[in-house]
Amino acid sequence: MAQRTRHRRLVVLSGKEAWCTEQAVRVAQSLNQPDSLWIGDHGPDWIQTSTNSQALEQLGGECGLLIYNAYSGFDPNAFGALSGSLRGGGLLLLLTPPLREWADFADPQAERILAAGYPASGLKHRFLERISRLLQTDPAAICLSAGDTPSLPPTPTLSPPQFHHPSCRTHDQAKAVEAIVHVVKGHRKRPLVLTSDRGRGKSSALGIAAAQLISDGYKHILVTGPRQGAVSTLFQQAANCLPGANISRLTLRRDGATLRYSAPDHLLSDSPKADLLLVDEAAAIPTPLLEGLLNRYPRIAFATTVHGYEGTGLGFNHRFKKHLDRQMPQWREITLKEPIRWAADDPLERLIFKLLALDASPAEDAMVADAHPQETRLAFPSQQQLLEQERDLNQLFGLLVLAHYRTTPLDLRHLLDGPNLRIALLRYGEAVVAVALLAEEGAFSPHTAERIWAGRRRPRGHLLAQSLAAHLGLQAAATLKGMRVMRIAVHPAAQGRGLGSRLLEGVRQHAIDQGFDYLGASFGATPELIKFWRNNGLQAVRLGLRAGAGSSHPSVICIRPLSRSGEQMARQAGSRFAKQLPALLGDPMRQLPARLAYRLLDGIDHQSPTSLDEQDWLDLVAFAFARRGYDLTLPAIEIMALSALAEGWVAETDAALLIKRVLQKQAWQTCASSIGLSGRREVEARLRHIIGETVMRYGSDEVRQLAASINPAT
User: Fold this and answer.
1) Which of these CATH numbers, 3.40.50.10350, 3.40.50.1000, 3.40.50.300, 3.30.565.10, describes 171-336?
2) Is 121 exposed, middle or buried (0-12, 13-18, 19+ CB in 10 A)?
3) How much is the pTM?
């Protein structure tokens, strides 16, 4: 039946490893598929063998038989990715310990979610228990164990249904190619978004369209993606459509035209010209980068997987499409639904979605439409309780998928099995309306804390404890017990009502009751997020020197003390940060956006203007109200600027100028252009006015009288 319908099937061989591998080899011999693929140990030498870590290298290829040896470790990301390489009519063999005992197996992949201080022997394999339960109850899975003899008919190589197009294999794909070409030949600033589940040919559609445009005489087509390997299918398809093209790892050339890959951040920094920019697997690229590309390139097409192993397109749909609606309301979307490698309603695809929660989604909007903080219930369910409540698990994981651009099946395993993980959520009726993932950190011995401080230990899973000790130099911080908010998400239909703050307050009180010394978070810094955390009592204490790969923003650490020891540590951390931040802005963070710097400077400790001596005040008055030079007054100007920024009373445009020129030392013309002034003369005049305001605000009566005598207008 699978052969006739082009459906794929999963057969589970569960038992001792020797029996499983023996039966798998027999099946492989009987099917005699030349493109069989074996993942894990004990594959015969006549079958191509790979490891979990090499799974991404198999993307873009096809196989008729896939054998996954879970005795070598079950990697949910690799399993999900590789299942998409199995073509219609194909067979997936999953080799496991006896299913009722799989959760007791010492899975090698479990080490990826272990945190320092938690032995592997104490790890609970709830994720595998859930997989086992679903496999035993889902009719799409054929489960065989010792005593059963697999008897499987040969699976012939099947061709997809005939579709008369020189390159495309489905009507959906042909429609997508036509739309991509129209992005170039039609009006500017009308982006295209292609969405689909895996196996629908959207990456190939990008390649076919690129080849068609090159054949039509267009010379410069750019390609980007979350990593170079993600666009291999695109390049391969373009090469197939352009006989004689010269293709290297990053570039395809023919007749003076180029199809070239470049990383997203390089496109923003270098701005190479392009007739068209193709963005593949857009959901795995941080939203700020996508927004930058959209602003930079007037002809652009995005393609993304709705349910993927590297990240989900659901968050992309929620966040980036709203940006498209605001910035370019004439954008267009095409969804590819027709599978290419297998038939519609494929039982294996449905089963994989269920096993890996790729179809997880939050509660329906109508269920939370009236949710308000005072009507919600706070809960801290155990991981075992989540395992037993599939509805809660799906709603909770669905919220996390929406909130973070790169939520993967491995995150589900971490959620269920992470030994230092806790879950907090808000319920409204039967719906999960907000969720926070929490990690217990720190509580190291003084000896270990010293090694962390010295850079000799980097304990996995203790991000805040390590950073406070090693980066801020607070050795004792690693001995304290911290609660880190790893992720927090509020249902989109109930945002802006204080539910996130309500949840955080419940987490704070719970952490106090449990004896934690501080509450903290680390996240990609944006002005909005810094404001949210500050409004909830967490103060920034560290800024990363580089943009994070996950968010394209530098990371910031915020903490809130919960005990006396925590208060002492937080004071030290705040003092250290107040000293470091102005120096960082002057060199490594010179290009940090002014709005972000303003949020970070707001409220930090600073040298009071009262510390200035008489000559400093005379210099400031001479600069602000006479003609004393800027450079000759800079030390005192820096103190006044920090005071104004830290106390938050200066206007936003003036704050940006103080940050860019006084703290970041950006060029005069750069500062002028950023706020719409003509050059240094106008910038310096504006600085004299701002510093004049600070003099009148902080100066003594004598200083103000002196200023008034020089400039009566004051």
Assistant:
1) 3.40.50.300
2) exposed
3) 0.87
The answer on pLDDT for 515 being more than 50 is: yes
- SS3 of the chain: helix, strand, coil, percent, to 5: 50, 20, 35
For the segment 152-163, the average pLDDT, to the nearest whole number, is 51
Burial of residue 635, with CB atoms counted within 10 A of its CB: 0-12 exposed, 13-18 middle, 19 or more buried? exposed
Report pLDDT digits (tens) over 78-122. Answer: 999 899 889 899 999 999 999 999 999 999 999 899 999 998 888
Q: What are phi and psi of 306, to 5 degrees?
A: -70, -45
Question: Is the Cβ–Cβ distance between 370 and 204 less than 8 Å?
Answer: no
SS3 annotation, 426-461:
EEECCEEEEEEEEEEEECCCHHHHHHHHCCCCCCCC
Pull the structure tokens for residue 425.
Answer: 């959520």
Strand 554-561 and strand 518-524: the pairing is antiparallel
Strand order in the sheet with 481-490: 377-379, 421-428, 431-442, 481-490, 518-524, 554-561, 539-547
Return d(Cα 396, Cα 503) in angstroms, integer. 14
In this structure, which CATH number among 3.30.420.140, 3.20.170.40, 3.40.50.11040, 3.40.250.10 belongs to the domain 2-145?
3.40.50.11040
Closest CA relative to residue 393, chosen from 418, 362, 439: 362
Q: What are phi and psi of 279, to 5 degrees?
A: -115, 110
Cα 100 from Cα 274, distance rounded (Å):
56
CA 202 and chain centroid, separation: 22
Residue type, 338: E
If you classify domain 609-710 with CATH, what class do you get?
A: mainly alpha
